[in-house]
Design goal:
The structure holds two protein chains of two kinds.
Chain A lengths: L8 E5 L5 E7 L2 H16 L1 E3 L5 E8 L3 H17 L2 E11 L2 E13 L6 E2 L7 E3 L2 E9 L1
Antiparallel strand pairs in A: 1-2, 2-9, 3-6, 4-6, 5-6, 7-9, 8-9
Chain B lengths: L8 E4 L2 E4 L11 E4 L2 H5 L6 H9 L4 E12 L6 E8 L4 E2 L11 E10 H4 L3 H11 L14 H10 L1 H5 L28 H7 L12 E10 L2 H7 L5 E8 L2 H18 L15 E2 L3 H36 L8 E8 L1 E10 L2 E10 L1 E3 L18 E4 L7 E6 L2 H5 L3 E3 L8 H7 L2 H10 L3 E4 L2 H6 L8 H11 L2 E14 L1
Parallel strand pairs in B: 3-4, 18-19
Antiparallel strand pairs in B: 1-2, 2-3, 4-5, 5-13, 6-10, 7-9, 7-11, 8-9, 8-19, 12-13, 14-17, 15-16, 16-19
Helix pairs in contact in B: 4-10, 5-10, 7-9, 9-10
The chains are: A alpha+beta, B alpha+beta.
């Protein structure tokens, strides 16, 4: 049983081979944003320029968990190519995300995240907070 | 569920079997090759539970084997091996992993340690320059999209045609460096986009290139056939299929999650999502996995060439011949069709190995001619501060471990604990005092990959050799390391 912090955010939990985080948000959107913040922190992303482009992303999935995996995987690929999105707007309805963002060039000085896994991923709602564990393959 | 060794039947000093009666849903027993002190290091992780989950998969046959370097993965345990019936069994992308054909290549030389010890710092710096490492870093070779497709289809034959290989080098690569995909239609554009700039790069995390000194020989005759001599220099390369393989696995875990409901499989973890081996989805995944495996074989080949160039650049000008020959190149995250002796008869099965290597015994059809008598070289890297082992397979592995062996030391500390406990700059100094130079992309990686974060590789190897799965050939001691 993980005790989430009272405020929205994330923290790392023990995982032998990979990196696991517990994330919570006061809305599904906040959960997604917090998860992306955790990904950037683990990869130690540093923005290096002013915005180089404006862009958007639209993704659909069968479940909200699949949507979170798909969203984070898109973010991971952008960061791998040294480009980091900064959120302008993020909306989620019926397992469909619309994400508009400014794109910045960046440096990556932290861990190489190979993938976002489904292991232990289960988004639960409790008292208006949404939370889950995410395991990143390292 | 808390599980201890008392739940297991002891089959031998280092062999423990958990019967299918232990919990409902187990189709085959789980066999651990371990010793109590190694198992204690896994007491807080879920590796045994994950092995039990694997034993519940549809069509799994014989036994699920778990090697002494086991630790918790995401769904399937690291160090786990499971074989599936091709008729009733399933293919499981998560039991192969995101870094498809992550593996190790060993290069041996006749370069005496004494003759190059004064050049080691220059050598490792040259290797570090020649072999791009770090998150998403591009490779040293610029290739076209058509080249990448040929890499995926033909593996190291693509490199052979471009003289990136020595004569007969492909003979000493698992599957001769090519797993033949039926087609490339099931590979996403995203996978090709990620793979295109990364061929010939090391990556990050636990990937490394290490210059070693051969410090002990345990089996002179076998070492001689492997080309390994005491006090000579050897090089290990540990890398995989980079973003290409990561994306292939990501794509198929999603496709399997969305497209397998009709099979009504009840999998205990969504990372174990699966499809019948010969279903359309299963075959498409296997084709894409073969392509990613080929990417990894070529990646290690190109890294080999970069290492050779670095050796030449530093040693040739000092009049030292720098020939590095591949001893063997093997995969430790892979799935493949193999013939195994199960339930009294030879059967074709689909074997999943995640954090485990193949280990073939004498006179096996899949061994190159030069290793028919010695058996297959099995490479067991330690951590950067401890030595590594070269083993040779044994016929016993066919009976006991689905022709499989351990792949390394195995983690014992979580990455977060390692970062808290280990100061990277102190580690660099400590290793320097031991005569080991380490170049790393980040302090974070160094702390996470410190020797203290791993089990004692000697205990792992002693377990394996006591069980009889493999035998000791040579010991390698690290001199200089590039960590991704």
């Amino acid at each position: 049983m993980i005790n989430f912090p009272e405020s929205i955010g994330y923290f790392e939990i023990d995982h032998t081979a990979d990196i696991a985080i517990a994330v919570t948000g006061n809305s599904v959107e906040a959960l997604f944003i917090q998860s992306f913040s955790a990904l950037k922190k683990i990869a130690n992303v540093k923005l290096t320029t002013n915005a180089i482009a404006e862009s958007s992303l639209s993704l659909k999935a069968k479940t909200i968990e699949s949507l979170l995996v798909a969203f984070l995987n898109e973010m991971l690929i952008l960061i791998e190519s040294r480009k980091c999105p900064v959120c302008k707007q993020l909306k989620i309805r019926d397992n469909h995300i619309k994400f508009s963002y400014s794109l910045f060039e960046c440096e990556v000085r932290g861990a190489e995240l190979k993938a976002v896994t489904y292991n232990m991923l289960n988004i639960i709602e409790h008292a208006g907070y949404f939370s889950t564990i995410i395991v990143f393959d390292i | 569920m808390p599980i201890s060794l008392s739940d297991f039947d002891q089959l031998g000093p280092y062999e423990w079997q958990l019967d299918t009666k232990f919990t409902s849903g187990m189709n085959v027993p789980v066999v651990l090759f371990t010793q109590e002190k190694l198992l204690k290091e896994n007491k807080n992780d879920r590796s045994i539970e994950q092995a039990i989950n694997a034993s519940c998969l549809p069509g799994v046959v014989s036994r699920v084997c778990v090697m002494p370097d086991m630790h918790q993965g995401y769904g399937f345990p690291i160090g786990g091996v499971a074989a599936m019936s091709t008729e009733e069994g399933v293919i499981v992308p998560g039991a192969i992993g995101y870094d498809i054909n992550c593996g190790v290549r060993l290069l041996a030389s006749e370069i005496p340690f004494d003759s190059i010890k004064i050049f080691l710092d220059e050598l490792i710096a040259e290797i570090n320059n020649a072999c791009p490492s770090g998150v998403g870093k591009g490779g040293a070779y610029k290739i076209s999209r058509q080249d990448l497709k040929e890499v995926c289809l033909t593996g190291v034959r693509w490199a052979e045609e471009r003289i990136f290989m020595q004569k007969n080098e492909s003979d000493v690569i698992e599957d001769e460096g090519c797993m033949v995909p039926d087609h490339l239609n099931g590979i996403s554009k995203k996978a090709f986009d990620r793979g295109l700039p990364q061929l010939g790069s090391l990556g990050a995390g636990n990937h490394f290139i290490e210059i070693d000194r051969v410090t002990s020989i345990f089996d002179q005759q076998t070492a001689s056939v492997f080309g390994i001599k005491k006090d000579m220099i050897a090089v290990q390369i540990h890398s995989g299929s980079r973003g290409f393989g990561h994306q292939v696995c990501t794509d198929y875990v999603r496709l399997f999650n969305e497209g397998t409901d009709h099979y009504k499989y009840r999998v205990p973890d969504r990372e174990l999502v699966c499809a019948p081996v010969y279903s359309k989805l299963g075959r498409n995944y296997f084709s894409a996995m073969c392509a990613a495996a080929n990417f990894a074989f070529v990646n290690r080949q190109l890294l080999t060439e970069s290492v050779r160039e670095a050796f030449n650049a530093v040693l040739a000008k000092n009049g030292i011949p720098a020939d590095l020959k591949t001893v063997y190149d093997l995969a430790h995250n892979i799935g493949k069709l193999e013939n195994l002796f199960i339930d009294g008869k030879m059967q074709q099965v689909f074997v999943h190995r995640k954090g485990a290597t193949r280990a073939l015994g004498k006179n096996h059809d899949n061994l190159p001619e030069i290793y028919q008598e010695t058996c297959q070289p099995v490479l067991v890297p330690g951590s950067m501060g401890t030595h590594s082992w070269v083993l040779a397979g044994n016929k016993m592995a066919e009976k006991k471990s689905l022709n499989s062996c351990c792949h390394g030391a195995g983690r014992v500390l979580s990455r977060s604990k390692a970062r808290k406990k280990i100061n990277a700059s102190e580690l660099i100094s400590h290793l320097k005092q031991k005569g080991i130079t380490v170049l790393a992309g980040s302090y974070r990686t160094l702390s996470e990959e410190a020797p203290q974060a791993y089990k004692a590789v000697d205990d792992v190897v002693d377990t394996i050799t006591s069980v009889g799965i493999a035998r000791k050939v040579a010991l390698l001691t690290p001199l200089s390391v590039v960590k991704g």
